[in-house]
Amino acid sequence: MTRAIDVALTYAGEQEGYVRAVAVELREHGVLLFFAPFEEVNLWGEDLIPYLERVYSEWARLCVMFISKQYVDKAWPRHERQAALSRQLTEQSAYILPVRFDDTEVPGLSSSIYFVRAEKHTPVELSAMIMQKLASPTPAASSGG
Question: Quick one: which of 3, 14, 30, 84 could link to 70 by a disulfide (CB 3.0–4.6 Å)?
């Protein structure tokens, strides 16, 4: 089974309020997204380890990573992050879009990847930014130079 997902959201439960507001806004604009609380029926009965790996390494066009100390410390976000980082290795364009709640270092995520701060953007503003990113053409895999 393959699924078309525009955006997969990965976060820690402590930030769910902000992330949910972003997810609601994206869904209202027709963005196909993976936000676990909206996926209960799809997740029901699934083995979550391989399922989440497919979400973050194959099915999603973009991954928005909501970074916090809790995000780095918890098991499920760690699994999602590892799958997204694996995908990032093979992408020639921005796949992971980091959104920071704090300055926690994320193992495996390059410190040179540009991020935005959650406190500087309302969920509506961040949703608009994500939709702009989805609408922008992706660069060719190799420009040949």
Answer: 14
Query: Domain 5-135 adopts which CATH fold?
Result: Rossmann fold (3.40.50)
Q: Which two tokens stand for residue 4?
A: 């078309």
Residue ranges covered by each domain of the chain: 5-135
Q: Answer for the pair 136, 123: CB distance below 8 angstroms, yes or no.
A: no
Give the separation between CA 68 and CA 33, rounded to whole angstroms: 21
Whether the CB-CB separation of 67 and 104 falls below 8 Å is answered with yes
Q: Tens digit of pLDDT for each residue in 12-51?
A: 999 999 999 999 999 999 999 999 999 999 999 999 999 9
The backbone torsions φ and ψ at residue 69, rounded to the nearest 5 degrees and listed phi first, read: -60, -45
Question: Which helix (H) or strand (E) is 7 found in, with range?
Answer: strand 5-10
